[in-house]
Amino acid sequence: xxxxxxxxxxxxxxxxxxxxxxxxxxxxxxxxxxxxxxxxxxxxxxxxxxxxxxxxxxxxxxxxxxxxxxxxxxxxxxxxxxxxxxxxxxxxxxxxxxxxxxxxxxxxxxxxxxxxxxxxxxxxxxxxxxxxxxxxxxxxxxxxxxxxxxxxxxxxxxxxxxxxxxxxxxxxxxxxxxxxxxxxxxxxxxxxxxxxxxxxxxxxxxxxxxxxxxxxxxxxxxxxxxxx
Length: 228
Known about the structure:
By secondary structure, the protein is α/β, with parallel strands linked by helices. The protein has helices at 54-66, 101-121, 149-159, 168-176, 185-198, and strands at residues 3-7, 26-30, 45-49, 73-77, 93-96, 123-126, 129-132, 137-140, 143-144, 165-167, 205-208, 212-215.
């Protein structure tokens, strides 16, 4: 059962998408006004009513997408309104007002599934570290790390290439880029700072003598502070 939020300027008795009444999802409808979004309830899916006023609906969709809407955005339109819909609306899918319950339910499942897949794909968990690619943040055992952008990039590169040994020149090329004119000394400096911030897990970034560095992978019971 999903939590659905419907944004519509229609009168209270007007059903925006009749098929929703035949499904078991929880539906909440509020006025399609920007001011209403401040205290809008959390939802797994947001529907925007575009049956009658396409211009207002497009404006509302753009407001939702530019303010960082986390839930999928679905547009409810008439068949005639389909011709006005374009990628710059920022929506995830369209639903015809006359769509049957099975189709509407399928679109809801698929939209939620896509979001779940994207969230998983942007998160890396390994050896006590959690890296969130979408927010450029990292945690050690749930504790947020205060990393600079370059430190985050270096940690992300190590974590996505576990156990591989990289020379300082390779790290400089991969993390700083070919157009960086600084010396390899900057790699050592950033590794040292990163280790300091990792605390008990500083050994995750291992030194290979006369070669470079690598990301060591450990099982949970092997990590410092584990009960094993």
